Automatic annotation (TrEMBL):
The active site is at D91, D287. Residues 1-19 form the signal peptide. This is Peptidase A1 domain-containing protein. Disulfide bonds join C323-C363. One of its GO terms (biological process) is proteolysis. The keyword Endoplasmic reticulum does not apply. Residues 73-407 form the Peptidase A1 domain. CDD domains: SAP_like (cd05474). The chain crosses the membrane at residues 445-462.
Length: 463
């Protein structure tokens, strides 16, 4: 996602961004669908972008591949009949799918880029239908896409969903479309419609509106998203489940309370944020569409001070650090809702952002600091935790139960052990991830279908 410092301040000032389940096992193996995705990012352009059947026990797998040159998480889809190939950015922070129209003038300016990501020609599809509703989405950095809501057949890796609603952009500031998979209450449409999580359930492809995210190591070539289930092979320890926070009276973002932050290096621990201090907690969105993080300046500077080095760059809006910290074993420990703790490796937070004139790599802490004019403004704002933080965790987004479950990710795991979720949510079952065992596939799936989205991509951010 994209985010400029000025737009970040404006958004934060406005304050808007935003039971014990049963898991069934059986020995039979249902169909698993792979949904390829590639990761791309450019740090100065993508710090954050924010906008205002069959039986029910299956999973669908989504594959993500690491594209070092651009660093957004991309997925390959086809739309229409016959299918037209497109590549779009996967985003848990928004809720609409939109793609470029073949008539979009942006693609006349950047034909090479649009040739890579693809455009959609509605005239060539026999199943295309338009609607009377305009599609307009504007992000906080002033990037936008305008067009109309339309419907057509969406397909990926053997799955087809007819009459899928999406935005067809006839004008935009970017050549890259976005596949938002958040709450339908976060759609920009006047009236909510069934987006991907909704349609996967209504078409009997999964039993519950829930998916798990495993971005994997910063240098890894693949990670995974799994719709309708969890993969015990991708995390260690038990999943800790916490309640999401509503925005006003509705749930529209994956919003949690960040109650404690500590920098841990060896036996030394430095407190950055403490729940023992009244009113210190801040609200954060767990957003895979954001490359880095956006946190209060006092918190970011506290982390840099604990590291012991770092120089703020006005050009990047980030703290420049020595690239040797990419091999550090230190962690930034985040605790949510006083209940779930995630240890984020410093080696995942220190990211390469550019080559200097001497050909050496420039590295930065992947967190954009934002100043708040007062304690009230700080507490009412909503901050973002993007890929730089999420890589260290195995994150389960449960839209039905309004819960998020968190465990420590196992990097480069070659084990797959899938458990299908039902309507009661996520258990605290322990992960069994290992990066040393031979490749194994152990599907343990109840009588439902599960949409398993396997092989997500971790972003390495180079210009």
């Amino acid at each position: 996602m994209k985010f400029s410092t000025v737009c970040t301040l404006a958004l934060l000032a406005s304050g808007s961004v935003l039971g014990s389940p049963i898991i069934e096992h059986r020995s039979t193996t249902p169909g698993v669908v792979h949904f390829p995705i590639e990761a791309r990012s450019k740090p100065k352009e993508r710090l954050a972008r924010r906008l205002r059947g069959r039986d029910s026990n299956s999973t669908v797998a989504m594959t993500l591949n690491n594209d070092i040159s651009d660093g957004a998480y991309l997925t390959n889809i086809t739309i229409g009949t016959p299918g037209q190939s497109l590549r779009v950015q996967l985003d848990t922070g928004s809720s609409d799918l939109w793609v470029q129209s073949s008539d979009n003038p942006t693609c006349q300016i950047s034909p090479d880029f649009c040739a890579t990501t693809g455009t959609f020609d509605e005239i060539s599809s026999s199943t295309f239908t338009s609607t009377s509703e305009d599609f307009t989405i504007t992000y906080a950095d002033a990037t936008y896409a305008d067009g109309v809501y339309v419907k057509d057949t969406l397909s990926f890796t053997g799955i087809s969903i007819e009459k899928f609603t999406f935005g067809l952009a006839t004008n935009s500031s970017s050549g890259l479309g976005v596949f938002g998979i958040g709450f339908d209450t976060n759609e920009v449409a006047t009236t909510t419609y069934q987006n991907l999580p909704d349609m996967l359930v209504s078409n009997g492809l999964i039993g519950v509106k829930a998916y798990s995210l495993w971005l994997n190591d910063i240098d890894a070539s693949t990670g995974s998203v799994l719709y309708g289930g969890i993969d015990l092979g991708k995390f260690t320890g038990s999943l800790a489940t916490v309640n999401m926070l509503p925005t006003g009276s509705i749930y529209s973002q994956f919003l949690l309370s960040l109650t404690d932050v500590a920098y841990v290096s060896g036996s030394s621990s430095t407190t950055i944020l403490s729940s023992s201090q009244a009113g210190s907690a801040i609200n954060v969105v767990l957003d895979s569409g954001t490359t880095y993080g956006i946190l209060p300046e006092s918190m970011v500077s506290g982390i840099v001070q604990a590291i012991g080095s770092g120089q703020y760059s006005q050009d990047y809006g980030l703290y420049i650090l020595d690239c040797s910290l990419q091999s550090s074993s230190a962690t930034v420990n985040l605790t949510f809702n006083n209940a779930a703790t995630l240890a984020v490796g410093l080696n995942q937070l220190v990211v390469p952002i550019e080559y200097n004139s001497q050909g050496s790599t420039v590295c930065a802490l992947g967190v954009q600091p934002i100043s708040s004019s007062s304690t009230d403004a700080r507490q009412s704002a909503t901050y973002l935790l993007g890929d730089a933080f999420l890589r260290s965790g195995y994150i389960v987004y449960d839209l039905d139960n309004k819960e998020i479950s968190i465990a420590q990710a196992v990097f480069n795991s070659d084990t797959t052990d899938i458990v299908v979720l039902n309507s009661t949510g996520v258990t605290g079952e322990s992960g069994r991830g290992s990066s040393k065992t031979s490749a194994a596939l152990a599907l343990r799936i109840p009588g439902y279908s599960v949409v398993v989205c396997v092989a997500l991509v971790a972003g390495v951010f180079l210009l």
